[in-house]
Structure formats: C-alpha cells, structure tokens
Design a protein that fits this description.
The protein is mostly beta strands and about 55 residues long. About 0% of the residues lie in helices and about 55% in strands. The chain is built from no helices and 5 strands.
Length: about 55
C-alpha cells in the first residue's frame, strides 16, 4: 500500500507499507551458496520520502 500527497506544486510526500499483516511466506528459491532453498519473506517494512522540484 503506497500513497502520494502533494503538499504544493513543488513538494510531495510519499510513503507506504509492505507486508502490512506481517505474514511469513517463501518468496523464491536461492540459487547460490549454501545451496538451493526457500528464502523467507521480509517482515513489515515502512518507507517515507519527501520530494522537491527545484
């Protein structure tokens, strides 16, 4: 889930949350050392950024 909020013509605020429910699942198979296997998902992550036009 992501969002963008335009604060003015020159400023914007962006953010979001990945894996909102903090579920555990396998994302893909690893191909390198220590051998093939399933990789666990990332936990809940959040991000926030400020954009400016000059």
């Amino acid at each position: 889930m992501t969002f963008t909020l335009n604060l003015s013509e020159m400023l914007s605020l962006r953010g979001g949350i990945n894996n909102l429910e903090d579920r555990v699942y396998a994302t893909r198979r690893a191909g390198g050392y220590p051998g093939p296997g399933l990789l666990p998902s990332d936990g809940r992550t959040m991000f926030l950024g400020l954009g400016a036009i000059f």
